[in-house]
Amino acid sequence: MTEPIRVLICEDQELVRTGYVTIFSAQPDIVVVGEAADGRAAVEAARRLRPDVIVMDVRMPVLDGIEATRQLTGPGVETPVKVLVVTTFNVDEYVYEALRAGASGFLLKDTPPARLVDGVRTIARGDSLLDPAVTRNLIGHFAERLRPTDTSRPEREAVVRALTPRELEVLEHLAAGLSNAEIAAELVISTETVKTYVSRILTKLDLRDRVQAVVLAYRTGLVSNTG
Fold first, then answer.
1. Per the domain annotation, does 193 fall within a domain?
2. What's the rounded Cα separation, in Å, for the pair 81 and 73?
3. Which of 60, 147, 177, 214 is surrounded by the fewest CB atoms within 10 Å?
């Protein structure tokens, strides 16, 4: 029997937090291992409980959800935890910063319960919760902020050395917001082959998911913000 997905709920509003607990506790494959009402408590609970997925609010007292996410899964963290950000904001500054901090994806607080549950399962599997349309929207909103600098040149060179020409091509399409099926059509290869390339890219670059790949591609200038 497969072990249930261990979830930590981090939300400062007690009513919302209780709602999440009720929703997840009703699922046979999910168990709520803890709750936290502020960012600092979230970090402490996550390090102690080691959940599979953290459901993280953005605006919380003591320490906000973005900084809590950074401390738990950002650059330099040896054993990162997967974070699903649930926010009242759409693709805006808060969500962007959360993704850069290491979150695996986001949902809005008015998301239907079934979608929320499916989101936790998606992230637990190791996938990112950003569909291609959202990825394109994210890029469109934050192209200026993703513009490469001189300090990103060594990182770009390291990426080019690590990937084959074909893998670089797949990364460019992925960063443009294309789905696996769309990439397959563009490159005239099978969807399964694309999945293999994406997996290799993430492994070689030590990236957790497609979200991180998109940010890396733009930050290093592998993909042009101006098209």
1. yes
2. 5
3. 147
- Nearest-CA neighbor of 142 among 99, 93, 104? 93
- pLDDT tens readout for residues 123-147: 888 766 665 555 556 655 655 565 6
Which class for 218: exposed (0-12), middle (13-18), buried (19 or more C-beta within 10 A)?
buried
What Rg value do the Cα atoms of the chain yield, rounded? Answer: 18
pTM: 0.69
Residue range(s) defining the domain that contains residue 196: 150-219
- 36-59 b/e (C-beta count within 10 Å ≥ 16 → b): bbbbbbbbebbeeeebbbbbbbbe
Same domain, 167 and 113: no
Domain count of the chain? 2
Residue range 181-203, pLDDT digits in tens: 889 999 999 989 998 999 899 89
Q: Are residues 202 and 157 in the same domain?
A: yes
